């Protein structure tokens, strides 16, 4: 009777006719080296100075339309959540390997060398370790950007509420008034006089407003802070 055919052995024989084992190892090693070199080049490109919003010549047919955003939409989100939209060279945290792999695949598919990378993230992520979620973009042109990759955890749902106070000067005043009213309402009645009156509440409110306003002014100006509309694309710490 004929012996059964081992397909793996036949495959090995076919391979060995073309290559020696040493040649195979050398080829695999060279492929891995070339692959690592491409990734190192991409990472170096992201950490180097960028020209003012260059245009990547993407094949538009290969792009996912739900990943394309206009600069106005990015700005609105940055202002609402007090985020920054800056070149990747300012990003101090680690850019994940998955993001680099996606860029490498896109460059191969589109036959381009991508440049002009930008990241949306909280200010602290451009200086310190943080757990919020960065978004990596590449420019398409005419104010449009393509979302390459997102990583990390989602933002807290309270962040938009917190950031609303710093959106503009008017919001800051309203927030200061509301906080002052809340603190004034928590002051027990009869602290300054046996009977609680409207005049007493107004005096307490003015005192609280001055105190809260002093804290806000110190944080906003002495600490070099600014409104969301001014910092969303600023590279300066004290913008």
Keywords for this entry:
single chain, 5-stranded antiparallel β-sheet, 239 residues, 49% helix
Write structural notes for this entry.
With 239 residues, this protein is an alpha+beta fold. The chain has eight helices and five strands. Strands 1-5-4-3-2 form a five-stranded antiparallel sheet. β4 (135-141) and β5 (144-150) form a beta hairpin. α6 (169-186) crosses α7 (198-222). The protein is elongated. The termini are far apart. The mean pLDDT is 78.
Question: What is the secondary structure topology, with strand pairs?
Answer:
Blueprint: H1 7-18, H2 21-47, E1 68-70, H3 71-81, E2 84-87, H4 97-110, E3 118-121, E4 135-141, E5 144-150, H5 159-164, H6 169-186, H7 198-222, H8 228-231
Antiparallel strand pairs: 1-5, 2-3, 3-4, 4-5
Helix pairs in contact: 2-4, 6-7
Largest sheet at a glance? 5 strands, antiparallel
Question: Gap between N and C termini, in Å?
Answer: 85 Å
Number of E-state strands: 5
Number of helices: 8
User: Helical amount among residues, as a percent range?
Assistant: 40-55%
The SS-based structural class is alpha+beta
Order of helices and strands: HHEHEHEEEHHHH
User: What low-confidence regions span 5 or more consecutive residues with pLDDT below 50?
Assistant: none
Q: Which term fits the overall shape?
A: elongated
Q: How much β-strand is present in the residues?
A: 5-15%
Summarize the structure.
This protein has 8 helices and 5 strands.
